[in-house]
Every structure is written in C-alpha cells, then in structure tokens.
Amino acid sequence: MQAILIKNAQIVNEGTLFTGDVLIEGDRIAAVDENISVKSADTKVIDADGHYLLPGMIDDQVHFREPGLTHKATIETESKAAVAGGITSFIEMPNTVPQATTIKLLEEKFSRAKETSWANYSFMFGGTNDNLSEILKVDPTKVAGLKLFLGSSTGNMLVDNPDTLEEIFSKTNLLISAHCEDEATIRKNLSEAKAIHGDSIPIEMHPKIRSEEACYISSSKAVALAKKTGARLHVFHLSTKKETQLFDGKKPLKDKKITAEVCIHHLWFTEEDYATKGTKIKWNPAVKTAADRDGLWKALNENKIDVIATDHAPHTLEEKENNYVNAPSGGPLVQHALEALFEMKDRGRITAEKIVEKTAHNPAILFQIKDRGFIRKGYKADLVLINPNAPWTVKKDNIAYKCGWSPFEGTTFKNRITHTIVNGVIAYENGKYPNRTHGERLTFDRG
User: Fold this and answer.
1) Catalytic residue (one of 59, 60, 182, 311)
2) Which terminus of the chain has fewer Cβ atoms in its 10 Å neighbourhood, N or C?
C-alpha cells in the first residue's frame, strides 16, 4: 500500500486548528507534525495548502435500504455517495426487509457490507415487543447498539408496550438509540387533519401532525425511563427546541448516560421550505419552525446535543412525489452533510472545530469505536480534505445517490470535498473514485 503524505493542511482536531502535515503508512496515521519530509520516492504527496483536513465523519444514523428495498438504495451505492461526502464510517438502521431483529439476520447484513461497502460500517440491532431474548444474545463488543422505534416504525418494530420497554431498558447492556414520537398524539392529529382536508392534506401540516407535543411526550418518557433503570440512552434526531431542555450540556461526554443527536435537515430547513421543497423535505420527525432550528443550534453549541448525523433515508423520486398521505418520509443526505455544515460555519452558526467534535470525535467516544474519529498517530487513516473556496452547485449530474435526487438540488456550496481517505486508501479525489475501497467492520472498546 502506497504511503501518502498530506502537506500544509489546516488540521482540525481535538479543539484546535493548526497548519501541519500528516503521514499515512498502510492503513494507519504514522505521524502528525508541523513539517514531515518525504522519505520515499513512491510516497504520494498531496499539497493541501489552504484546505481543511478533518477526521472522516462517523454517521451514526443511516438507512441504506439493503436488504429488501434495493430499488431505493444499496449498501454499495450509498456508501460510495457517503465517501464523496467525507463520511468514512456509518451505522445503519435495522428497519430493512427483513428487519434485523435476530442475530442471524444482523450477521447477514454484516456479510453483505463486507462484500460491497466503500466505507467502514456497523449496524444497529432492532428491538420489538417480543424479541428480548434475542436482544440479550447480542455481543456489545461487536454491534453498534440497539435501535428502538418509540414512534414512526415500519413492520412490527414499534415498541409500545410499557412493560416490555422497561424490561429492555433494565436488562440490556447495549447502547439504546431511540426514535421518539408519540404515536397516539400523531394518530389524533392525523385524524383531525383528514377530517378537514380528506386525502388532500397540505404538506405544510406535517409539523402540526408530527408535532412538538408528540416529540416531547416520547422523548421525555424515554429520558425518564433511562434515569429510572440506569440504561444508556441516545435519543436520535431531535427536532424541537423544547426537547433540548431534557439534556445536560455540562458533563463531559464520556460521563453522560443520556445523550442526543441532531440531523442536518433539522439544522438547515424550516417549515417555510415546504412551500418550495414539498414532500422532498418530509421527514419523521418533521422539520419544524425557525425557532426550533435556532434552539437546536443553540443546544448543539452548548453541548446539550452531542452528535450531528444525517438520517440518510432515500426513496425514489416517484415515491416522494405522491401526495402528503402517501409520500414516504426520509431523504438522501450523506453526500452533502459536511459541505452543508461548512456552509453554516461560514454563516457563523458553528466553528470548524465544533463540526469535527460533533461529526467525528463524539460519535467515536459515544459508541466507543476503536482507533477512529481522531487525527492521532496509530489511528486508522480515515481523513477528509475540504477546499473552503471552491463553489459548486448541487445538480442532477453530480448527485451520487441511487435515487438520483437531493433536497439540496440548486444549492451552491462555497466549499468542496476534494479527497476522502478510508483506511489509508484514497476513495474519492476531485469528483472521481480512484480506488475501490472496502470498508471494515467497526470494532468497539467496551468492557
């Protein structure tokens, strides 16, 4: 494997930004210093003058649709789009067909990823009302965690039995990641909307149907249950300002038992965008008010929210163009997440150091991922270079997702990812894929 020397980069790592070099030998970072000399004639040298160098993003929530929904996406197509977006590792969700709710089905997904994934990978095991015995068989050193749908589930994955929930929270040693929306509230709101609009409910009703109340009821119950049982809880995709008050911004992440995530779409869009984007920005939980978006940014910068993710969940354009009731929720995001965040950096919302903390360092700490998420000697060489002065516009012909569309179509970003390195190999370089990388199964430093 060819050595790579990255020269003159603006290295963003562990709360600092400094000019320096990084040497990669094999699949590891061999040195980080102010000036590293070329030792071998066959070393590939990348002049990164003026570019940011970051640890690759670890996306803790994606839906790559394989198995069973591969007309929308596959592990191969979406992991390839992910490396174009600077995501070098991902954790995928269990609501595929069949659902990953047994050890056998989960390991089949790992086997498929080993064959086809461009990026490093792990998978969540799925909880149901009746698979506690399987949950207790999961080895926490080999699997990212347990996903519980406390709302907006597919198949039989809605875990709505209070006794079952408490038993799961009490007995599992897995990190529990939860989708929190109260189904009873949503059903009531939907029924009322249908009584007025029939099947012609306007998309602008989405944040009223999947309301602040629905989110807060569910999130607050999950947090209370975690405190009661001592479970390790990570609440996915916060979408409301009100929910942020449930979380602590003062403790170091390593000492937290209850953590939270926010997704790119809830940091970028507001309810005003439904008028132009329509069902392309229909997600669960819903994109809500500008005040909610501002509250999420504030909580993120105050460390009440610990992780930024994508919740990448592609559907075909034909599916998304259905009316509100029939259009599925979710959209593709992995290719554009980091560039959207750096755009928000330029607008004063967040610093480069905080982006790296929330997209790389914190997912590695929170999930106890071994040897990734930092630019450190001896760590895996998962790295991203971003040119901060290379404007480009998202168009059909430069979208990498299998579904072929993006909610960012027409958006011009000032910055552009130039290189993504996965395990010491250049997976993406200036719009091309020079090497067919094969991601590795993530490993975890857990007792």
Assistant:
1) 311
2) C
